[in-house]
Task: structure prediction
Amino acid sequence: MEKKTARLFFIDAMRAWAILMMLQGHFIDGLLDVAFKDNTNTTYTIWKYFRGITAPVFFTVSGFIFTYLLIKVPQKGWQNPRVLKGIKRGLQLLFIGYLLRANLFGILKGEIYDAFFLVDVLHCIGLSLLGIIGIYLLAQKTNKALLSTLLLGVTVLLFLFEPLYEKWTFGFLPQALANFLTRANGSVFTIIPWFGYTTFGAFLSVLFTRYKNHKFLYEYAILLSLLTGIVLIFFSSDLFLGLSDLTGATLFEAIAMNNYLFIRLGDVFLVFAVFMLFRGLMTHPTLLKIGQSTLSIYIIHFIILYGSFTGLGLYKFFHHQLSPMMAISGAIVFMTVCAFTALQYEKNKVMIKSGISIGTKQLYRNLQPWYLFSQKLIKGYLSKVLRSVGRTKTN
Result:
């Protein structure tokens, strides 16, 4: 592999940009006073549009980098060590997604709140990684060239039929499972259609890997990304209306009337083009480390903003109460604190995990005598109770 593709700095930079935009988007949207959420205000409208780009970029980049690492190793199928790592990662994201929604006060009262079962970014990305692994293994068993076709096919099908399944509530499923498929119960993200962005990122990764040694890789990629992005943003709705008139299929008209998926995919193409164009300027170590620490940043931001485990987050105390200046200033501080804390954690992760492990073992050793003593007391007490009611056998 050529040196220029040995490390995809522009992908790490995109991940950094996406996570930081997610942080400020969540902060401002949750804490800005609703009186200032004026869709007639140009500044707010521009901010709102760019905020809408964040999630599609984040999902697409997640699929891209995961698949890039998955297919670049020489081993194939189950022999590929990235398969088991990917399964572990997907399950880990699902676990963390639920853990962040756990409320300790509710658990202590013997209650599990409905919010615990809502699906968010981590749930969808975790399940998406498992889905990509499934497609990868299926393609390896049949035809290796089938991988890119399947990935693109999943994206197209999910995006095209969104007007149909968007109305389904999946009431026949347990709510915990239905939340992965419908937003009717309050889920922020659902696996359909968001899996489509992840598989599209995986599709781009396959293409990138296939042509990684092409002399004009970036030149062609930037030009194609710009053209495709412009077409999807400005002309896709008219295209679907034309198809509706031509075929009489109301599905195409429904897509055109709410064409956010293809338009946002166009936005993703433009973001890819910009970051590839300026890839030479995106090699600052801090920026790249932020891009490689997105999970830690997301966890920290969720705890501070939404109050994971305790419910005592900024959202509880300042929900829709800040002025624009306070919200913007607060968002900058919030992004800085989350990124700095995450980078410090990543820097000292080995030492922190070692300390936790040692502390856990020490706690177990300290509690073990008390545990054994309490067992004896309980057994003795139960034995006395049983004898008192005549249920203990005597020799």
Remarks:
- The chain has one domain: 3-347.
- The CA atoms of residues 239 and 347 lie 50 Å apart.
